Amino acid sequence: MPVAARWFRVIAFVEAVSWTALLIAMFLKRVVDAPHEGGVPVVGMVHGVGFVVYLASTAWAGLVLKWRWWVVLIGLAAGVPPFGTVVFERWVQRTGRLGVPARSRRTTPAAAAPSKG
């Protein structure tokens, strides 16, 4: 797997984890009324940096792996909703866009049998 693909996969996961942390911090701030604003300023900054790094890694992966422009655009947009990066990362992996062939589907015995004739 190319370095850009590995980097992209790691950053997509980290960005999703930072989303989770931010959602928990916002819950603590708004619902539980935790002290120190529930950590939102710190977690928000970490998430913001993770988001920018995700955008850069998506653009880099798109260039290196020769994604079509609309795939890169979907990848960039996937950084906006919570956990969209994971959904996008799974999709590009399943469709073979990370530089490795997609897993082969099981063939039926009839399709696998040699033809006679």
Question: What does this entry look like structurally?
Answer:
The chain is mainly α. Helix content is 68%, strand content 0%. It contains 5 helices and no strands. The chain has helices spanning 3-32, 40-64, 69-77, 84-94, 109-112. The longest helix is centred in the N-terminal third of the chain and has 30 residues, at 3-32. It is elongated and about 45 Å long. The N and C termini lie far apart (41 Å). The mean pLDDT is 85.
Whole-Å distance between the termini? 41 Å
Shape: elongated
How many distinct beta strands? 0
Share of residues in strands: under 5%
Question: Percentage of helical residues?
Answer: 55-70%
Please give the largest β-sheet: none
The helix/strand order is HHHHH
With helices defined by DSSP (H or I, 4 residues minimum), what is the helix count? 5
The residue ranges in which pLDDT falls below 50 over 5 or more consecutive positions are none
What kind of assembly state do the chains in view correspond to?
single chain
Q: Supply the helix-strand structural class.
A: mainly alpha
Please compute the radius of gyration using only Cα atoms. Answer: 20 Å
Mean pLDDT: 85
